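User: Show me a protein chain along with its predicted structure.
Assistant: Here is one chain, sequence first, then structure tokens.
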Amino acid sequence: MGAGAKSDPTRIQIADISNTIYDPLARSVRRGLRLHGVHSGIPVVYSTEVPGEVKLLPLPEDEFKKGSVNELGVFDDFRVRILPVLGPMPAIFGLNMAMVVMCDLARKPIVNPLGIKYRKKVYEKLYRALVDCESRIARRQIK
């Protein structure tokens, strides 16, 4: 799914398209698939990071001289406006996709993936455990 406007590689998830959350591109693809009768069964790599306020990158002045900016598309000389992307994010998405394919080919499914919906609780539990451990080491209360 979309790596644009994402910057946190720890939020990358692998799931069925029907279980994706917080990804606008995944939501759009789900809608399109439903129109064709497909509701699940497609594994995807996506990010649970909520996209912030991002804007399309500005076009240089010479692009306006080439013609109408409303006609900018994928095939006409690739004159497109794009969302800013942190360099390694698409590569990290690609590595995750490659891992899914290799595990599938080796017939070694990914078991017990990290839960998606209750991730906040997992992080809070880990944080409390870390604070308790650090408090014992420091022999004082840490806030």
